[in-house]
Amino acid sequence: MTTTEPETADTTAFAERVFASALCALETMSIHVGDRLGWYRALAEHGPLDPPGLADATGTHERYAREWLEHQAVCGILEVEDPDVAASARRYRLPAAQAEVLTDRTSLDYLAPLARMITGAAGKIDALLDVYRTGGGVPWERFGADARDAQGDINRPWFDHRLADALASVPEVHDVLSRPDARIADVGCGHGWSALALARAYPDATVDGYDVDAPAIDAAREHAAEAGLGDRVTFHVVAGEGLPDRPVYDAAFVFEAVHDMPRPVEVLHAIRRAVRDDGVVVVMDEAVAERFAPDGDEVERIMYGYSLFLCLPDSLSTTDSVGTGTVMRPAVLDGYAREAGFSGAEVLPSRDSRSSGSRACRADRASARRPRSPPDAPAVGCRERSRRARPEASDPCFWPFREEGGD
Ligand SMILES: C[S@@+](CC[C@H](N)C(=O)[O-])C[C@H]1O[C@@H](n2cnc3c(N)ncnc32)[C@H](O)[C@@H]1O
């Protein structure tokens, strides 16, 4: 005979939570489908549409189009003109707010890439299960074009709309970038949107973007050519460890990439060598809490999710990786900075009123061949943002380093 414990309120509440998570997972997959098949774009451009109209406009199968339209309507993503009309003649509309979030690549609220990235990671679940059992990793290239393109797309609006103002608000950084003929390195540049934004913001500057991922650099070169910035922005398939070993740059940036790097100390050390003594080094990474705590906020929850399914397996795919993971606490970066010859990092209050969940830190650069800078040594900042689901809550945080004398 089987006995069942009586259901408690906690059990019921947790079962409801898991059920709600399943609903969200299905919705995320359906958003990916609508994005990849062009269904949202067709509805935004030609809607309202019925199932045959949507299938015709996108070269897709009518019965599946109908099922998706009905799913989207019951989920409250699409509006339906008249629910009582026969299923194949029912017309659906994409409201303006949904159209912006799901189709406007320039909007700070553009979140279709989030569904693309999550679904791309889910597609590799068997490989992930293997490495969770045995160790090793799943390299970024195995996640494929969806994950790579999603990474570029999700950060692009913030770089395009916010990076210039963020940098201008830090005089120590802005002054360096405003030098005549300033030279800037963007390490781990991915699709290059940050490098292009830097070049736009500082018209006298030249920018070198570095990344180990060749397809991302190919895309970055295309974006530079399309933007007409190919003369001032150059992209290299070169790891951060391989930067010039002399101080050729006025400034170096690492946007949302230190936590991915298998050997972050080596990269920071190479950066330190490649930047002039009177330059600045700026690291922007996820705006996570200072320390681990259970029942974390949304930033913590999404960053651990990214870490589990994307960043950590990518990082651990390299032998001898330190395996940072997406949740790189300020103290971890501080430790990397010190090991690389900087004097450390100090958390700063964010200067962005909308970034309540973000934080800032400062670091002083210290030469590897001289004692660390005193605690009150001048410091310079950098901005950081997180890949959060809600862009307004993901704005910058500073992780700055300053050149305080050279090697
Ligand atoms: C999360 S993506 C960020 C890309 C881009 N900075 C952005 O904000 O969209 C991290 C990037 O770091 C790159 N990366 C990882 N290790 C690297 C290394 N050692 N040197 C240069 N790039 C590296 C990856 O290829 C990837 O493009």
Please characterize this protein's 3D structure.
The chain is α/β, with parallel strands linked by helices and 407 residues long. It folds into two domains: 10-103, Winged helix-like DNA-binding domain superfamily/Winged helix DNA-binding domain (Arc Repressor Mutant, subunit A, Orthogonal Bundle); 156-402, Vaccinia Virus protein VP39 (Rossmann fold). 45% of the residues lie in helices and 13% in strands. The chain has helices spanning 9-36, 39-46, 51-58, 62-74, 96-103, 112-122, 125-134, 140-168, 171-177, 193-201, 214-226, 264-274, 298-315, 330-339; strands at residues 79-80, 92-93, 183-187, 206-211, 233-237, 249-255, 275-284, 342-348, 360-365, 400-402. It has a six-stranded mixed sheet. A two-stranded antiparallel sheet has the order 1-2. The model is unreliable at 348-407 (pLDDT under 50). The structure holds S-adenosylmethionine (SAM). S-adenosylmethionine (SAM) binds next to α8 and β4. The site of S-adenosylmethionine has 23 residues, from α8 and β4.
Give the key terms.
single chain, 407 residues, alpha/beta, Arc Repressor Mutant, subunit A, Rossmann fold, 2 domains, 6-stranded mixed beta sheet, two-stranded antiparallel ribbon, 14 helices, binds S-adenosylmethionine
Topology:
Layout: H1 9-36, H2 39-46, H3 51-58, H4 62-74, E1 79-80, E2 92-93, H5 96-103, H6 112-122, H7 125-134, H8 140-168, H9 171-177, E3 183-187, H10 193-201, E4 206-211, H11 214-226, E5 233-237, E6 249-255, H12 264-274, E7 275-284, H13 298-315, H14 330-339, E8 342-348, E9 360-365, E10 400-402
Parallel strand pairs: 3-4, 3-6, 4-5, 6-7
Antiparallel strand pairs: 1-2, 7-10, 8-9
Helix pairs in contact: 1-6, 2-3, 3-4, 6-8, 8-10
Bound molecules: S-adenosylmethionine.
